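Reading a protein record of the kind used here takes little practice once its layout is understood. The fold follows as a row of integers, each naming the local backbone shape at the matching residue. With these conventions in mind, the following record can be read line by line:

_____
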Amino acid sequence: MLCQVSAATSSSVNAAGRNASVTSLMICSGFVVCWSLSVVQFFLSHVGVVQIDFYGWFHDFAVWMVQLNSCINPFIYAAKYRDFQTGVRKMLKKNSSGVSAAG
């Protein structure tokens, strides 16, 4: 028996797949941008081109960018997914009404 999918369902599945692909591309791009300075600095130090100054501004900035990578994914999800936005609103509403996060 063959299963037929309506045009509306097929269109919404395509849109969801496209949205997931764009979100994945945004997350991967953020990862590459945030880690690139640290990786380049590490590579150049290991081939002997530069010596890492662990107290210099460039190293501090590279470490800051790596840490930023841990923070950007929720913002990407919030920008792309309505369900994520709704879940965050519900969570914040519960916490603001005096209910503790533990229970």
